[in-house]
Each structure stands twice: as C-alpha cells, then as structure tokens.
Amino acid sequence: MDVVVFLGAPGSGKGTQAKRLADSHGYTHLSTGDMLRAAIREETTLGKKAKGFLDRGELVPDDVMIGLIEDRFGALPKASRVLLDGFPRTMPQAEVLDEKPTTEVGLAVHFKLDPEALVVRLTGRRTCKQCGEPFHVKFLPPKKAGICDKCGGELVQRSDDTESVVRTRIAVFQKQNQSLLDYYKGRKILRDIDADRPVDVIRKDLAALLSSWFK
Ligand code: AMP
Q1: CB 170 within 8 A of CB 162
Q2: Residue 122: CB within 6 Å of ligand 1?
C-alpha cells in the first residue's frame, strides 16, 4: 500500500486538502482525529479512552493510536493509495509505520505555516455536521452562513477549536514536530508546502506532487 504522510500543525490545512484530493483523485483519506471523534460520538471503548485527551488538546497514548491505525490499514484493499492525516504525531508512531511490511511511506508533505497564524485559523474553523466538509469563517466561508455548500447540513465548531485548547494543541505539536521532520528529512522523502496560500493554489501544487509519487 502506498502511503503519503501529511505533517503540519493543527490548522495548517492538512485535513482540508486531504479530503479534497481524496474526492477528486480517488485516494483514501485516513484522519486519526476523525476516527477518534467518530469513536467518541458512538461512545465506543476507544472513544471513552480518548475523550479526555481530545478535550484537553493532549495526545492520545501511542499504544492506543498504533492499535487503531493497524486495524484501519488491515481493513483496506492492498492497492489503496493512502493520504495519512494526523498520524504519525510521535516518533514511536513513525517507526511503527515504517516497520509494517504492507505499507510504504514514500512521501512526507510538511504544511509549513507561521505559528502566529494558527490560532485565527483554528478558532475560525467550522465543519459540516452531516458530511464533514471543512469551512472557515474567514478563509473558506460557505455561501450561506452556517450551512454546508455541499449537502446543506449544519456547520459546527469542533469542541477542541476553542482558544484555550487550541493553545495547548499548538504547544503539543511544536514539541513533537521537529523530530518527525528530521526523521523524514533523513529518509530524503520530506517536501515542504507553503500552507499560507489560498486553498485552491495549494491543492494544485499538492496534486502535482502526489501524482509524481502515486503511479
Ligand atoms: P486532529 O483532528 O488531527 O487535529 O486531532 C484531534 C485530536 O485527536 C488531537 O488533539 C489528539 O488529541 C488526537 N489525535 C489525533 N491523532 C493523533 C495521533 N496520531 N496521536 C495521538 N493523538 C492523536
């Protein structure tokens, strides 16, 4: 299975881009954040374990995350082309991914953005309750306030996109990120994307980059 890892701060646009490219190019988008939020909504055992960590903006422990991602990969067809969004977040997670014989991480895309911009980006995010389509009150507004352009569903704010939780999430990210960047740089598969540009401009660059890796 060919895998592209999306690295970058919360709010850098990884999820938005992954979702769109999955829709337009038939890639499989795996977002560990989305998986955890679904588990919390459904009140599964995983959801109960994870809820406190998400509410505080902290990382869910590695053993839980590694089990989750292994289950997901196990259920995918071998020929899948996967965009992995939100995983790995730590070095043990990155190492497990490379040890798996069934997955090949051939590209790591780093969504580069000034940390100052993150708070505004995160606190302005809205997501469709029905289909998960992402919006932003300032940078990617829906045609009609509070309503999804795609399916007409209600737009809601994630509970961890409030300012105090956002600040914790950014601090957690900054602590872990450099080791991950160094790791993929060492493997010579790291590519930077300037994430401080309009969504469609970034999407074009990314589409070209991905098509050079996914055959
Ligand atoms: P995200 O939607 O990627 O911003 O993730 C939301 C939250 O889910 C994070 O703040 C963490 O609490 C948790 N989470 C998502 N992915 C991971 C991961 N790979 N390792 C640990 N925690 C994660």
Answers
A1: no
A2: no
Known catalytic residue: 169? yes
Q: Report whether 183 contacts 91 (CB < 8 A).
A: yes
Q: Is residue 204 among the annotated active site residues?
A: no
The token pair that represents 158 in the structure block: 């994630």
- Predicted confidence pLDDT, tens digits, the chain (215 residues): 999 999 999 999 999 999 999 999 999 999 999 999 999 999 999 999 999 999 999 999 999 999 999 999 999 999 999 999 999 999 999 999 999 888 899 999 999 998 888 999 999 999 999 999 999 999 899 999 999 999 999 999 999 999 999 999 999 999 999 999 999 999 999 999 999 999 999 999 999 999 988 87
Query: Does any ligand 1 atom lie closer than 6 A to the CB of residue 33?
Result: yes
State phi, psi for 70 to the nearest 5 degrees: -65, -40
Ligand 1 atom nearest to CA at 53: 12
What's the gap in Å between 86 CA and the centre of ligand 1? 6
Interval between CA 72 and ligand 1 midpoint (Å): 15
Is 87 near ligand 1, meaning CB less than 6 Å away?
A: yes
Calculated CA dihedral for residues 29, 187, 118, 11, nearest 10 degrees: 0
Q: 3-state DSSP call for residue 152?
A: coil
CA 33 to centroid of ligand 1, rounded, Å: 5
CA 147 to chain CA centroid, Å, is 23
Whole-number pLDDT of residue 213: 83
